[in-house]
Amino acid sequence: YKINMNELMLLEELGKGQYGVVQKVHHVPTGVTMAMKEIRLELDQTKLNQILMELDVLHKSQSPCIVEFYGAFFIESCVYYCMEYMDAGSLDKLYGDGVPEPVLAKITLAMVRGLKFLKDELAIIHRDVKPTNVLVDTKGSVKLCDFGVSGQLEQSLAKTNIGCQSYMAPERITTATASTYTVQSDIWSLGISLVELALGHYPYGGGKFDSVFAQLSAIVNGAPPELPSDRYSQDCRDFVAKCLNKAPTERPTYAQLLDTPWLQKYDKEEVDMAAWVTGALEKKNARAAAQHEAEQATTDQIH
Ligand code: ADP
């Protein structure tokens, strides 16, 4: 089944991506609410067709830990990518001051399962693991999005954007060629994402570094970041430390990660993820309202 723009009713804007907006849309023939991501690229017809063909593999397999792909089409040189709508958005806007260990464990289980699925079923390395690319819904589901399925799309995006490099593993910074990108680099990015979710901020940020160079050199030469011992168990801290081994070949595989005492324990435990998501959304909305009010007050002062 092919989706096209005429069948879509545009609802609201969900966010702005690096290459265009993400919109909530209603697919009239099926009654499904979707998220439609616009990717603005100056590409010729051949390349656009290649991207659509490469995206087609996503129709073949589905996983509960991966945001479902509904279809893509292009208009002029823009690619429109339609996917499952996740009503609580991305984790980067929800973690607040940091997530409690049981929630962190359930998020980790979903991320590791999603990454393992991509690798085993689709032979894909994600290449962009970070909290922004983990979407959640109010039922408590946690799913990965924005993985590098289409080689042509990745290549075209890489050309138009240098991007934020900060989740890059040390070996990617020092070797700087795409060919050295292996599954182990995704495991490093997973570790950095978990530290960010636990601390409530990106570990190499917060004005600690005066330049991108200083930040990258801390990743390459410094000790890897750790979780605070007062709030996270030893099993949890060990898990993160294994992901953040500076030597890529020493990092565990996804199967080994799923087999760790930490994930084994939380796989069996019931955690009310829906309640956590709902609470986190309320706090996010309260923060947005407070900010709006502060801006309003400033405007009133000026007038
Ligand atoms: P980019 O990767 O180009 O920066 P994103 O994928 O991060 O763009 O999209 C921007 C924002 O749109 C996200 O932060 C998220 O809030 C929202 N968004 C993206 N995909 C979805 C989706 N499937 N469901 C709901 N919201 C989404």
Automatic annotation (TrEMBL):
Entry keyword RNA-binding: no
Keywords carried by this UniProt record: ATP-binding, Kinase, Nucleotide-binding, Phosphoprotein, Serine/threonine-protein kinase, Transferase
One of the GO BP terms on file: p38MAPK cascade
An example Gene Ontology CC term for this record: cytoplasm
Domain Protein kinase, first and last residues per copy: 8-263
Residues covered by region (Disordered): 287-303
E.C. no: 2.7.12.2
Highest taxon, organism lineage: Eukaryota
Amino-acid positions noted as binding ATP in the UniProt annotation, renumbered to this chain: 37
EC category name: transferase
Catalyses which reaction(s): L-tyrosyl-[protein] + ATP = O-phospho-L-tyrosyl-[protein] + ADP + H(+); L-seryl-[protein] + ATP = O-phospho-L-seryl-[protein] + ADP + H(+); L-threonyl-[protein] + ATP = O-phospho-L-threonyl-[protein] + ADP + H(+)
A single MF term (Gene Ontology): MAP kinase kinase activity
Record family assignment: Belongs to the protein kinase superfamily. STE Ser/Thr protein kinase family. MAP kinase kinase subfamily.
Name this polypeptide is given: mitogen-activated protein kinase kinase
Organism: Geranomyces variabilis
